[in-house]
Amino acid sequence: MAKRAEKGTMGSFSRGAELWMHQARLFGVAVLTVVVISFLIGLVTGSVYFYKAATPVERYALERNWIGEARDALGMNRAKMELYVNGNKSMLDVKEVIALTEDDATEARRKMRNGTLIGSLVGIGCLILLSMFWWHYGRGKMTDERLRGASLVNGEDLKALVNAREDASPYVIADVPMRAKSENLHTLIAGAQGTGKSQQFFALMKQVRARGKRAIVYDPSGEFTQAFFRPGKDILMNPLDARSPNWNIWNEIEKDYHFDNMANGLIPDPAEADPFWAKAGRMVLKDVYKVLGREGRRTNRDLYNSIAKSNLEAMHALLAGEAGASYVDPVTERTGMSLKMTVQNQLEAFRFLHDEGEPFSIRKWIKEESDSWMFITAREELREALAPVLSLWVDTVIKAVLSLDPVHRERLWLFVDELPTLQKLDILKLALTNTRKYGLCCVLGVQDFSQVYEIYGHDLAKTIISGCQTKLLLRVTDGAAAKLMSELMGQAEVDEKDETLSYGISSSRDGVSVFAKRNLREIVLTSEILTLPDMHGYLVIPGDYPIARVAYEYTPTQKIADGFVERGGLGISFQPATPAAPDMLDDDDDAPPAPPADDGKKADSGRVVIDADTGEVVGTREELSRAKPRSEDESDLEALAEALAGKEDISKDRTYTFKVPPKGFPSRMFHDAGMEIPGFIHVPAGKTLMQSIEALTMKKPTKAAATAAKPAPKKPDPYADI
User: Fold this and answer.
1) What is the pLDDT of residues 571-607, one digit of tens each?
2) Taking the complete model, does pTM exceed 0.85, yes or no?
3) Does domain 183-245+362-468 have CATH number 3.40.50.300?
4) Whole-number Å distance between alpha carbons of 375 and 361
5) Where does this protein have compositionally biased stretches of type Basic and acidic residues (predicted)?
């Protein structure tokens, strides 16, 4: 804020003196006024008391007695004094008058003293009360007055108000009861790291556990698992944890539209970019689910290999007859590779999923009636890599809840701490706006609103934030986030008071002016949010309740389980590299030799077989089982030479095995494709050797090869009824 320019020394002195003297005069007048008024009130009160308490005779006797004593004191006692005795007028000496009136005068004096005391007490009381009244009146005239809008109270006041209305929920957040039946209106806890956000997650989870309710907990750090996981009763979902069950996509598929659900949950729409790649990728992925399901290859290994370890030719062959095949047509190589990478990036986490043990279905677990909990966890170092499958699990949970019968009450809790660590959940909008009748109670935790806006986009992020009607807002370190919090708590219309001073040489020009104006003001300033202490914040509950400034204490939580138990078989050991054997080139080929791939490493994707080093297709599962061991004799070389010359029987499957490519072998095709020359080539029935080589090297088949090719027989469709 800009600093006001300082005035000259003389101006400051004269201004200060004039204003001080003006304030002193105002104060003096105010004090004199309150004293005079109090004195008059006390005097009147005492006089009235004396008049009522003393009889007329006593008052007359007191008056004669005072006059007599005064005349006696002044030496004026020679003259007679008038005195009525029993109604008769008498002229008596001064001393006689004093003596005759002494008794009644004494009684009158006593009553006068009482009146004086009473009047003094009343006067002092009036002085105090009048001073306090004027002080409060003056303060009130300069106090801003809330006319309408939001208001701010402390936590105890809000707690008392909720209880007074008999509107308290059995659940408590920040030591304040939630509003009754507001659990399924969802809760947002926002605050920077170390502000006490996790403390409220722990507190709510303890209450849910104590009431025997079910919960799904996304635990990005493992601390909730340590505090609440019960081995043998609860479910733990983590691709790298030994306690994680055997889960795959097909365990969640009961209806045809479930294919779409599982594809949409894995590949979300981008927040701002063109959604074409996401939509096309979902189409490809959905058809891969269907094809692998029909062929009985319903494993995570098959799903990963069919995409990650296949080229476009193999993917196109896998999806033959499906709508998604057109997206991975080798003819449109650039588009196909982009879509392949879109899908492959989302499937990377599936290489960590195992296929052993009894199958587990999230959808079936949701339908169970028990107090079992599900924990979705990930280690910090792999959280980003596992985000797609973790997000898919959360997405599946929400969609499974939406398939239940409406109950319009609390049924299932979903705790998601650190929401931005998951990828975009398109279903979250529906979860926060339409799941109240299904009994889903969401509790979301975020550190920085900018991450939510980045992942979900402006409009969807606003929907998510507003969809949580109970909000606990803790300290943040970003001004933009603090401003958003301030806006979430609302504004109030305020009648604001202001004061102006005027002064001059003449005291008649000195004066004070007070005026009021209406303005809209935030009830909590951005700077107040930025400077909140730990475990202090603002609580917003739905309905016509004020905003509460709350505070709570740190409560330690006992650990009852391990946060992570690593699954076996994840270790890697590297063998020393061995020099590759030189290759021989055809006389007509001048490309550098490539060593044969003879390490026995093959990756099986089900329909096609992929070389694990190059990632290229070398045949199918059935072809690999029929392939010869890597040996070589003259008959193999002669058969290979005849095939290269176009003399081969294409009516049956053939396998050509060799160590060194013979003369005429198209080594350049493998070199141009960036591939090593394989140790054997399997050629299926209906295709020529050159067609198989061209397919391996991702080249378009020649016209002659295309003419010789025959369509493969159509396989039965066991998934035709889905």
Assistant:
1) 666 666 555 444 433 434 443 444 343 443 444 434 4
2) no
3) yes
4) 14
5) 619-632
